[in-house]
Write a structure and sequence with these properties.
- With 381 residues, the chain is α/β, with parallel strands linked by helices.
- It is 40% helix and 16% strand.
- It is built from 15 helices and twelve strands.
- Helix 7 links the parallel strand 5 and strand 6.
- Helix 3 packs across helix 10 and helix 12 packs parallel to helix 15.
- The radius of gyration is 22 Å and the shape is globular.
């Protein structure tokens, strides 16, 4: 019997470098980047900065380091505070690095379902010139917003946020804006605008190349020349100063040239899976079609007796009756669908460059069968 066909939709972090990336990595011209002498890294940093309308860029090993460096530069004084969403990656999944390593207090604002937060609440939470309080130095926005289901942050919200922070008398010191733009190219593809437009009012942006852009390693942090100079110095302290890392940066250049233009296809395929689930009209498992905006799909678990973890575990199993009923790939093998689920009320699937139409159809076939099993166990009352 053939081995099961695996469709891995846990995250776009499992994307693989393309053949062109591997070729360019093998032939990359390199140098010592700590000396500023790696031409491929220099090219990626400059090209990314230009695309985002910023003065300079800095290649770093990860988006987590990029976000931490931004916090450290913008909140350089002791006793400072950054305002972030309570469902943001920088708050939930970066191991408290802002406080652990940078001595910066993160204060949270409730994320709305669309990934935004209340600007009225933000205005109220900004600290004033009171020596009892920390100094509000930074606001962080995540775009697209992962835990909110790949939501694209509306341009109107970004504009209003920037205008608010520019008003005289807001806070006791200038307040910077940083975007955790790990998937900001997805936001641009969804909105049909440039990333420069999205980030025009942001002092810094961290962009990940190893998620939906398929590169194996790396992020780029962009901002002003002064900001990047300070971030470069701090990168060394965090152990992020690499040597002949142009081998990695070469894949990022290919991502900009070849993968970014194709992100819309990931969005279309995500919507196909969402539509297939919605059409089932299951009383136990559903999706909200109106909120599917990019390459992330949240599959809501409506039945209290069923957890998202159990649902994900079932999708990753092949039962004998599946093969008998034709829930198989073309070669007759069973289908393993990998999805993410923690202690959430939903399972998450994420599409990326290597998930093509055939894998989408296998995912739909598996989801349809498994959801049907649950609907037989718990039919509509």
């Amino acid at each position: 019997m053939s081995s099961p066909s695996i469709v891995d939709l846990r995250s776009d972090t499992v994307s693989l470098p393309t053949a062109e990336m591997r070729a360019r990595m093998a032939s990359a011209i390199v140098g010592d980047d700590v000396y500023g002498e790696d031409p491929t890294i220099n090219e990626l940093e400059a090209k990314t900065a230009t695309i985002f309308g910023k003065e300079a860029g800095l290649f770093v090993p990860s988006g987590t380091m990029g976000n931490l460096l931004a916090i450290m530069v913008h909140c350089h004084k002791r006793g400072t505070e950054a305002l972030v969403g309570d469902l943001s990656h920088v708050f939930l999944y970066e191991q408290g690095g802002a406080s652990h390593l940078a001595g910066v207090q993160l204060a949270t604002l409730k994320n709305e379902p669309d990934g935004t937060f209340s600007l009225t609440e933000l205005r109220r939470r900004i600290r004033h010139d009171d020596y009892h309080e920390p100094i509000t130095s930074l606001v962080v926005v995540e775009n697209t917003h992962n835990i909110c289901g790949g939501k694209v942050i509306p341009l109107a919200f970004l504009d209003e946020l920037a205008n608010l922070l520019r008003q005289p008398g807001v806070g006791c010191a200038p307040i910077a804006l940083h975007m955790d733009g790990a998937r900001v190219f997805n936001a641009a593809a969804a909105l049909g605008v440039s990333v420069a437009r999205i980030c025009q009012d942001f002092d810094s942006v961290s962009i990940c190349f190893s998620k939906g852009l398929s590169a194996p390693v790396g992020s780029v942090l962009v901002g002003s020349q002064r900001f990047i100079s300070q971030a470069r110095r701090l990168r060394k302290a965090l152990g992020g100063g690499m040597r002949q890392a142009g081998i990695l940066a070469a894949a990022g250049l290919v991502a900009l040239e070849e993968v970014v233009p194709l992100l819309g296809k990931d969005h279309e395929r995500t919507k196909r899976i969402a539509n297939a689930i919605y059409q089932l009209q299951s009383p136990n498992v559903t999706v909200d079609l109106d909120t599917v905006q990019s390459n992330i799909l949240l599959i809501e678990i409506k039945r209290s007796e069923l957890t998202a973890t159990e649902f994900a575990e079932r999708l990753a199993q092949v039962e004998p009756q599946e093969l008998a009923t034709g829930v198989t790939a073309k070669d007759g093998s069973g289908i393993i669908l990998k999805a993410s689920a923690r202690d959430w009320a939903f399972a998450r699937v994420v599409l990326y460059h290597q998930v093509e139409d055939e894998q989408v159809e296998l995912a739909i076939k598996k989801l349809t069968y498994v959801i049907g099993q649950y609907d037989q166990r718990w039919p509509r009352s």
